[in-house]
Amino acid sequence: MPECAPAQLNWTLRVVAEAPKGTDEPPRSRLTATNTGPGQCVFDGYPWFRVHIGKAEEAVAVPGRQTPSRHTVPPGASVSTDLFYSVTPGTSGRCFMPADASPQAQVIPPHAAADASASAPQLMDRQGNAVPLAVCGEDIWMAAPVLVRLPRDKARVDDVPGR
Questions:
Q1: Is the domain defined by 6-156 classed in CATH 2.60.40?
Q2: Residue 20: C-alpha distances to residues 25, 28, 112, 130 (Å)
Q3: Contact in structure between 157 and 146 (CB atoms under 8 Å)
Q4: Which pLDDT score is estimated for 40?
């Protein structure tokens, strides 16, 4: 079975939990790849994800310690991974990539060809509205990808129990 290719995946990036006020706990965003191709594909590993400002600042997501499962992704189904990062300026008051600098996200599926083009998902809030992206720390952590089957029950990723 072929690996999931960039052309058959539609990427979304959505805020699923805000950082609690007055804490340094990172917010959680969910990066989701939906198979829009005509056939099944294999998603095996962590995607490559980064946030950058032009050719200057960048933060590349660090995969979690958990070994990701190999997922067979039918057409219409999705694979998602949670991202954790700081949106609170450090003790110096500096934010590594503030929203007003218009940072951009880029993602490539695991095992993509070396010359694969990155997709650029826009950050959305829970209602689906575009929101500015900010990464104040230099680190982004990534949870292991999980399979979300949409075709049968039409459940949204946000509605999956335990997520």
A1: yes
A2: 7, 11, 36, 21
A3: no
A4: 96
